[in-house]
Amino acid sequence: MPADLLQGAQSVIFPGLECYGPFYRLTSVEPVNRYAFIAAAQHSAADGRLSRAVLASFTQAVMEDTCRATVESPSIVSLACEFVGDAQIGDCIEAQIRMVRRTRSVIFLSADITTGGRVLLTANGLAKPAT
Questions:
Q1: CATH, domain 3-128, list 3.40.50.720, 3.20.20.140, 3.10.129.10, 3.90.550.10
Q2: Entry pTM
């Protein structure tokens, strides 16, 4: 991971994804929350490309973490992903998450997952607080 990207980075643990870390919460400016990880062998498919399931799981985890600042125990109830590009082992994967809108019962989120300035995935999600 580039040294400037790690400046002020905080290690974060996502429940259920501990064995795929380490993951980092990066310094960000409102309203965007940023996260990152380095693609490794455990994240890749047989052909060496980053598994799309890993990208989707990472997206779900960072969306929930973004919501934790405003609600207790958020849960992603809808996640629509558009896979745009591929990544390889060694690539720095960065997520930029935006809380688009919040109502009493639902939080609307959007995400861009990138590496080296290339978009890998765009997503829209809905989160609900635990009841």
A1: 3.10.129.10
A2: 0.86
